[in-house]
Model the fold of this input.
Amino acid sequence: MQVHIVRMTIESEQVRALREREEGSIGIGAMIVFIALILVAAVASTIIITTAEELQQRAEKTADDTRGEISGKINLVDAFVKTTTGADPDALASILVIAQLAAGADEVTSNLVTYFITCANAAGDDLVIDTNTIDAAGASMLDGSDGDGNAATAFSSDSLESGDTFKIPITLANCQPNVGGKLQLLVTVEGGGETEAELEVVSTTVGKSLV
Done:
């Protein structure tokens, strides 16, 4: 009888040990699952935060670019034949562009405004370009004054305000189209917007509009 009781005690201890091991295994498994969930949540939150920051940066850059384009925009009013070449009276030597700082634009310094004139070469198989800042070209207000109100003075890093209208004499050293030819005009403001226009030569008569 005593041997039987001892045997039952040993068996019950073994059963208890097995149960404790099983419960311990279940606890460790649950802890592993819990830690895994925490890690997944941490990774997911990191991805969400990183994506949100990237989207915010893109939105801010887009907003800055849009504000720059709006705040520094040159509008083309008109363009005219100014002179023709001596060798060929049917070829343009220079034009006069009338432009205006767009309504609502921020103040722009004239030396930050650049023009680009592009066209095909005489053979028609290559692109040629005439470019300069409007200061170097001798731009001025319509009455010949500079942006600071000095009479008969071309721009020299002068301030242009919204609504200011000015003239830009452009010498065509490379692009000298004949009647029927076309010029591509691009006016840009450093850090601001840009304006494109196609100028068509319908006549080389001085003062004839090209727009």
